[in-house]
Amino acid sequence: MASGIKLNLKNMTFLNSKTIIVLGIFTTTAFNCKKDNNTATAASTGTVDITSVIQSNYTGTTTFSVSSGNIVIKSDGLPNHKTPYWGVGNALYEDFPTGYHANVNTSMSAHNYSMTIPSKPGTVTAHEETTLGPIGMALNGVPIYNDREGGNVALDALTITTFDYSGAHPGPGQDYHYHTTGRYTSQDDAKLIGFLRDGFPIYGRKDTTGVYPSLDAYGGHTGPTQDFPNGIYHYHASNVNYLNTGYYVLKAGSYYGTKGTFTQ
Ligand SMILES: [Zn+2]
Ligand SMILES: [Zn+2]
Q1: Predicted confidence pLDDT, tens digits, the chain (264 residues)
Q2: Centre of ligand 1 from the C-alpha of residue 44, in Å
Q3: Would you say residue 32 lies in a domain?
Q4: Which residues form the YHYH domain (predicted)?
Q5: Residue 34: CB partners within 8 Å, gap ≥ 6?
Q6: pLDDT (tens digit, 9 = 90+) per residue, 193-222?
Q7: Is residue 76 part of a domain?
Q8: Enclosing H/E stretch for 5
Q9: Which of 3, 122, 145, 155 is most buried by a 10 A CB count?
Q10: Bridge partners, 118 (sequence order)
């Protein structure tokens, strides 16, 4: 037990991912001919404008602006829902799930997050891997992380015991973030969770039709959603019960499009 905790501490030490700033090249001309069982594939190549969906769905402390084909969403990164990480005494405090607990990172604080994404997201031929750190932003302004933890290793069972009911925890930088589905983002449903850094939306495990869609190598597919009835490329949370924990990773692997910036 003790050695397991030590291992985890070591991993968590490296979690403090410094700001990753990469200038996005918003190429919208490229498209690939991957198999897709939906006929609405044209919608994925940079023709669908996501601005109005962003406007009507982002909440809490988030603000946004639009300029030259890009949307900038800003947030303080704090959740608008209950979590033990608010601390005992806070109105939004609730205990951990049974058997779960904080370890080295017990608190969270406000940040100055700013995510820039294209208003008409398109795909690219070279699909960049997601990395440790923010890969997107949930509708309440909380960063979305992939399935990696400090040291860029896959989330392990011990790290997951630091999650709250929403599949989230703060890192050493007091940066609260979602790795998986949970009470806030999505459970077994088709809810819109947020947008990733390439501008494509991410949904729960189901489509609006109630089925679990078959997904491509990027964890998404093209088709209609409740927000984009004419179809758009969109991600879904993984449908794999991660390490049998009851949590489902939101997004792993490569981006479908070109990632924009996410600064803090
Ligand atoms: Zn984490
Ligand atoms: Zn879908």
Answers
A1: 333 333 333 333 333 333 333 333 333 333 333 434 444 444 457 899 999 999 999 997 788 999 889 999 999 999 999 999 999 999 999 999 999 998 777 889 999 999 999 999 998 889 999 999 999 999 999 999 999 998 889 999 999 999 999 999 999 899 999 999 999 999 999 999 999 999 999 999 999 999 999 999 999 999 999 999 999 999 999 999 999 999 999 999 999 999 999 999
A2: 30
A3: no
A4: 115-206
A5: 216, 217
A6: 999 999 999 999 999 999 999 999 999 999
A7: yes
A8: helix 2-13
A9: 145
A10: 70
CA distances from 11 to 151, 162, 249 (A): 6, 13, 19
Say if 26 falls within a structural domain. no
Ligand nearest to the CA of 37: 2
How buried is 147 (Cβ within 10 angstroms: 0-12 exposed, 13-18 middle, 19+ buried)?
middle
**In this structure, what DSSP letter does residue 99 have?**
T
User: Is the residue at 31 inside a domain?
Assistant: no
Q: How far is the CA of 122 from the centre of ligand 2 (A)?
A: 17
Among 53, 61, 58, 63, which Cα is nearest to 78's?
61
- Count of structural domains, the chain: 1
CA of 180 relative to ligand 1 center, distance in Å = 10
What is the distance in A from the centroid of ligand 2 to the CA of 93?
Answer: 33
> How many angstroms separate the alpha carbon of residue 145 from the centre of ligand 1?
7
What is the 235 CA–ligand 2 centroid distance (Å)? Answer: 7
Q: Tokens for 63, please give them.
A: 């603000």
**Around Cβ 18, how many Cβ atoms within 10 Å?**
8
- CA distances (Å), origin 128, targets 197, 207, 253, 255: 11, 25, 9, 6
Domain interval for residue 188:
45-264
* Plot region of 225 (φ>0 → left; ψ -120 to 50 → alpha; else → beta): beta
